[in-house]
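Action item from last week, closing it out:
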Amino acid sequence: MSATAGSENVETVGELAEKKLHELEEKHHFHLPRTAPSDLLEAIVLNVNYVAAFLWVLLVLVIVVAVTLRYVFGRGSIMLEEIQWHIYGVGFVLALSYALVVDRHVRIDVLAERLPLRGRAWIELVGLVVFLIPFCVAVILEAIPFVLRSWQLNEISAAPDGLPYRWIPKSFIIWGFSLLLLAAVARLLRVTALLFGRPAPRPAF
């Protein structure tokens, strides 16, 4: 009887913790209206990231193979180590856009969380227009010659048994920040829909 009661209490505590978590999420995130163009841009970002999510499965498999070779067979592999770095780098830079679309990036809302919805939207507008979008454009413009130079030189790893075609992982700087730029523009459209009614917000369901 007591065991049953104890398990019920544990479940109740878990439910309370989950409820508190949702309350905190609602407090620290604000909901913006959806629009047709922002939905299209966000769909592109999400679909790319859903496919790219398999990179993490691949990364785990490569790590398992590398660890097995090192500790079971006593053989290290620089190639496998570099593959790990490249997969992680590619996955990370692509996931930046996903974090923005689902609003799970780090925020410092000491003041903003105390403001009404429109006040927070104005802060979001300034942050996107003044900081994030210009930063994405600057990174893309700098990355293009960086990647082209790597391709023209047929850059390879300086380590023995390292990987060739270094321009391939470097090119994901362009792709990753291009996706982040799409996500930022989508976010901007949702902010302007709230503040100015343009583009037209979609009805909430």
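Closing note: The chain is about 75% helix and 0% strand.
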